[in-house]
Amino acid sequence: QVQLVESGGGLVQAGGSLRLSCAASGGTFSGYAMGWFRQAPEKEREIVAAITWRGDRTYYTDSVKGRFTISRDNAKNMVYLQMNTLRPEDTAFYYCAAKRTFALIISRSYDYWGQGTQVTVSS
Length: 123
Description:
Layout: E1 3-7, E2 10-13, E3 18-25, E4 32-39, E5 46-51, E6 58-60, E7 68-73, E8 78-83, E9 92-100, E10 112-113, E11 117-122
Parallel strand pairs: 2-11
Antiparallel strand pairs: 1-3, 3-8, 4-5, 4-9, 5-6, 7-8, 9-10, 9-11
């Protein structure tokens, strides 16, 4: 069974950048679509970005387009979320998710979830 571990969260100033990483424990990402989600204290968990197993298709929620980039390195068994020009409204707990499929998954129907990492953006 795939277990996901996120890292790279922290406190940054508005306009700054941060890169989140997701790694597998007890398995690999081979054959899995991946996604990044976030949840602020007063909001529902929402999808931020998604990427297919091959890395040939991606999805971004409107609020992060042009600022965030999801990528993966299957040889290194790593998935990343590069976050640039961060805004206070990006403050949330960020989760990595995986599903064994060739499709691009942009819903919450992932099978595996990480514990999350906190991202706080100060103004």
